[in-house]
Amino acid sequence: MAFQLPEERAGYFSIPGTQRRLFYWYFQARSPSTGAPIANAPLVAWLQGGPGCSSLIGLFFENGPYTINDTLGLVPNPNTWAAAANLIYIDSPVGTGLSYYTSTTSDSSTSQLDVARTLTAFFQAFYRAPRYAALAKSKLILSGESFAGHYIPAAAAYMRANAQSLPLSGIAMGNPLTHGPSMFESYPAYALAQGLISQTLYSRVQESVASCKLLSTLCSTLDPAACKPASKTCAYKVWSATLSGDGSLLKSKNVYNLKQTDCVDPSNCYAQLESRLEQYINANRAKLGAPLNVTYASCSDPPYWSLWGDMTKSYNDLVAALLDSGINVMVYSGDYDFVCNSLGTSKWVDALLWSKQQSWARVKPQAWSGGTFRRLGPLTFVRVAKAGHLVPMDQPAASLLLI
Q1: Which entry of 109, 389, 394, 399 is annotated as an active-site residue?
Q2: How far apart are CA 12 and CA 229, in angstroms?
Q3: Residue 113 CB partners (closer than 8 Å, separation 6+)
Q4: What are the pLDDT digits (tens) for 311-370?
Q5: If phi over 0 gives left and psi between -120 and 50 gives alpha, with beta otherwise, what is residue 144?
Q6: Are 324 and 47 in contact (CB under 8 A)?
Q7: Which of 91, 107, 310, 337 is catalytic?
Q8: In terms of domains, do 17 and 152 share one?
Q9: Are residues 135 and 191 in the same domain?
């Protein structure tokens, strides 16, 4: 049977008490064999990283029902997650993608608490809408990748504590930035292990890793004034130094997929895809209900800089608390990614302070068709072979199996 595109709706929900409007695009789950709607399918919400990158990147180039070809035509995606779940792509935080605010002064989110409150209010409005009210009987799963490793634990924990009527049952994070110190510490170590930097450069960067870890920990625990210095130290003296130091081979690599060899410009292998997406969305902006004064960009600067100080904060404690409160957690990691690599990710997952931490340490990896996984109770950690930062793009069939 020919692939059938699911029912879809795009639009906005206003956030009460603010002048913010968050854009969403919803797709109904459909059976890939019959084309019929899937009864009781969960609702999987997708959040992109950045901060400030649009969820429509995920829709059109990762796990949505279709992709955009080079003539701006839509091509069905046979491995869409809509074959297993209802999907909703949300441009968050405000100022990302087609989401906007109407106030004359800046209303960008400057904290994860604000992002979490706004997302919670969005879902409360979503489930109140008559056309979506029936979905409240199905499970809600928050998913996303990269910097969404901040958004998702924060939003899930806030919902769990303050909006228990929402049917939240799980979170799924791909190549997430969740624990800043572990990830920044991993950069020189991972690069050295892969033969991408010299021992000399490794030793030089290590001198800054300690400062990065200290400032990041202060930022997360004691002193909010340390957050922006932490981001600056970690970004420039650890990340940039590892990438651009003398003799670093990373300068000629796609750091989102180290094995990709067909990049025209290794510093941005996805520029053509982003341009294609921006052309398509801006050409169809009116159909999507976007105001004339809102111009779409795949990644926006205002949300990025508003959350710059949040970059090195850690949200692993929230993940641990979610596990012990009954929320299912899946963390998956593409083995070819450098930006949020499996070394840094596995380190913070293994260090989670939850009730089954000691038992988790004894769980051995098992093979599956897409790589390896470890599972204990509500926690699953998956390593996806031959995939980079964007797992659903690099290994679409495997990512569908995951979800």
Answers
A1: 389
A2: 36
A3: 154, 158
A4: 999 999 999 999 999 999 999 999 999 999 999 999 999 999 999 999 999 999 999 999
A5: left
A6: no
A7: 337
A8: yes
A9: no
